[in-house]
């Protein structure tokens, strides 16, 4: 295994893991807070990608289009949440079936609106080059995606640690009923967290476009990886989502490079081991 | 003035009929003790008042207004403070954050971070520690402080002495007396009979989901028959 092979896959894995974090952070917080398993989270990512690439095709700025894709996704997510999911807190099975249904509806909607051909997405012009260090070549865009995701992670961490909303969210993950009994309107925190999860996944859609491209069924491929992240990291833990994303991203990259015919195996063996020996995940608390 | 007026409430857990027509009154500025053996519905009564397990029938009035159909957070914001059984400190929050979240209802009054720290100097020393790192006695102080932060009119105290060393229980008694002096009304659920009788102005005994005795705490102290029949001691 030479240095070049190692460096390329490490960076590729980090970039892919960064995208997984944008999806899995919302997944883990929504589950930790509301006990809703949102199977539509990766469909949110895909919707953000298609909305974003359509705007880019109409000449809009890449970054603006990415954020717009996130906002459209957030509005849709909030509509789904307030109309349906809101009633099924702490009812994981019902919410699971509901979100599975919405994932299928979103998939078919995307297929109907944008067709079945894969869409490749170019990075914004300023980031199309590469950085060369010795014999190693790194695409600038990969580095940018890693930097953006870590910035998003930092903002989320500071919000959780330093704001009153963060205090409310942590308290509600600990003991929602008690938070209500102290006069906290936990429902407002639920809306904010669901909206933030959909927004970040939706923004991630176009950001990830140059790496994952966009095609119907991409969400179905990402869902097992995003859930692997949540299981490895521990449900409800943002630190867990970050560490889990990096781990799964790296294992995915090296696994595909070294044992391409066993790519799912290399990811889910560690997941199975964690479920067997540490079912709450690396950073989760025992229920 | 009757601050809390519980009238003929029936509360269920799923199909179990726990409270079978309980009525009681708590007066402003007084300590009302709820006594009774384990599993007779005392905690269920507290849970009914704060809205965790609303009654299926009957009414609960707080300061003259019906609250039995309100959400818990709305009940708390009207001035009901809760120190639950088992304390239920948030382990992922620091001591200070636990107190700040208690102050969220934004009701004004004598209690603030500073005055709670004056009442419990020990908590000031532990301000940056996480809730899960505290001793049982410290957790109890924090649970009381957290409830006080909302400047409640009525404090629901559910088994505050549970699991505490005798020395800490005596401190708890002094704390309750001080709170009473501030004019705070307290509904106290307590297994520790001497503690409850020392601070209570009036006492109820609950048995199998019904009130079986209501009267002066002195009667419970002196009347062996009441104690034997209803408390089994």
Q: What do you see in this structure?
A:
The complex is a heterodimer of chains A (about 290) and B (about 230). With about 290 residues, chain A is mostly helical. Chain A has a domain at about 20-215. Chain A contains ten helices and two strands. Chain A has helices spanning about 5-35, 40-55, 60-85, 90-115, 140-160, 165-180, 185-210, 220-235, 240-260, 265-275, and strands spanning about 130-135, 135-140. In chain A, strands 1-2 form a two-stranded antiparallel sheet. In chain A, a hairpin with a 2-residue loop joins strand 1 and strand 2 (about 135-140). With about 230 residues, chain B is α/β, with parallel strands linked by helices. Chain B has a single domain (about 1-230), classed as Rossmann fold. Helices cover about 35% and strands about 25% of the residues of chain B. Chain B is built from ten helices and ten strands. Chain B has helices at about 40-50, 70-75, 95-100, 115-120, 120-125, 135-150, 165-180, 195-200, 215-220, 225-230; strands at about 1-15, 15-25, 30-35, 55-60, 65, 80-85, 155-160, 185-190, 200-205, 210-215. The radius of gyration of chain B is 17 Å and the shape is globular. The two termini of chain B are about 35 Å apart. Classes of the chains: A mainly alpha (about 290), B alpha/beta (about 230). At the A-B interface, helix 6 of A face helix 2 and helix 3 of B.
């Amino acid at each position: 295994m030479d240095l070049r092979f190692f460096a390329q896959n490490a960076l590729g894995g980090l970039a892919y893991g960064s995208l997984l974090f944008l999806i899995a952070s919302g997944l883990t917080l929504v589950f930790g807070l509301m006990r809703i398993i949102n199977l539509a989270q990766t469909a949110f990512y895909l919707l953000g990608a298609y909305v974003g690439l359509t705007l880019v095709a109409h000449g809009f700025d890449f970054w603006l289009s990415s954020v717009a894709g996130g906002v459209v996704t957030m509005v849709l997510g909030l509509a789904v949440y307030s109309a349906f999911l809101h009633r099924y807190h702490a009812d994981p099975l019902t919410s699971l079936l509901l979100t599975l249904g919405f994932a299928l509806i979103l998939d078919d909607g995307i297929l109907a609106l944008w067709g079945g051909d894969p869409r490749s997405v170019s990075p914004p012009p300023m980031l199309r080059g590469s950085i060369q260090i010795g014999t190693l070549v790194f695409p600038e865009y990969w580095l940018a995606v890693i930097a953006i995701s870590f910035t998003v992670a930092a903002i989320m961490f500071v919000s959780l640690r330093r704001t009153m909303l963060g205090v409310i969210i942590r308290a509600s993950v600990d003991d929602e009923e008690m938070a209500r009994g102290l006069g906290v309107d936990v429902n407002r925190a639920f809306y904010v967290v669901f909206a933030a999860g959909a927004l970040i996944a939706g923004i991630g859609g176009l950001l990830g476009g140059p790496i994952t491209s966009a095609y119907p069924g991409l969400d179905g491929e990402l869902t097992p990886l995003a859930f692997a992240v949540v299981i490895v990291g521990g449900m409800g833990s943002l630190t867990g989502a970050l560490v889990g994303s990096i781990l799964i991203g790296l294992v995915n990259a090296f696994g595909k490079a070294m044992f391409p015919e066993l790519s799912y195996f290399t990811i889910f063996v560690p997941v199975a081991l964690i479920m067997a020996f540490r079912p709450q995940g690396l950073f989760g608390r025992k229920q | 003035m009757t601050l809390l007026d519980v009238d003929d409430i029936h509360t269920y857990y799923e199909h179990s009929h726990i409270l079978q027509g309980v009525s009681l009154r708590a007066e402003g500025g007084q300590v009302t003790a709820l006594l009774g053996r384990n599993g007779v519905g005392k905690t269920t009564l507290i849970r009914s008042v704060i809205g965790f397990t609303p009654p299926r029938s009957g009414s609960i009035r707080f300061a003259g207004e019906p609250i039995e159909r309100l959400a818990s957070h709305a009940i708390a914001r009207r001035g009901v403070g809760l120190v639950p059984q088992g304390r239920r400190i948030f382990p992922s929050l620091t001591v200070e954050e636990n107190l700040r979240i208690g102050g969220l209802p934004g009701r004004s009054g004598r209690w603030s971070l500073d005055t709670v720290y004056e009442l419990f100097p020990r908590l000031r020393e532990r301000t940056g520690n996480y809730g899960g790192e505290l001793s049982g006695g410290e957790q109890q102080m924090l649970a009381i402080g957290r409830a006080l932060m909302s400047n409640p009119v009525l404090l629901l105290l559910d088994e505050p002495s549970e699991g505490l060393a005798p020395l800490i229980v005596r401190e708890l008694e002094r704390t309750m007396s001080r709170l009473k002096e501030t004019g705070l009304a307290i509904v106290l659920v307590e297994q520790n009979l001497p503690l409850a009788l020392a601070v209570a102005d009036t006492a109820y005994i609950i048995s199998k989901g019904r009130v079986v005795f209501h009267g002066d705490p002195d009667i419970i102290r002196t009347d062996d028959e009441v104690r034997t029949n209803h408390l089994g001691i």
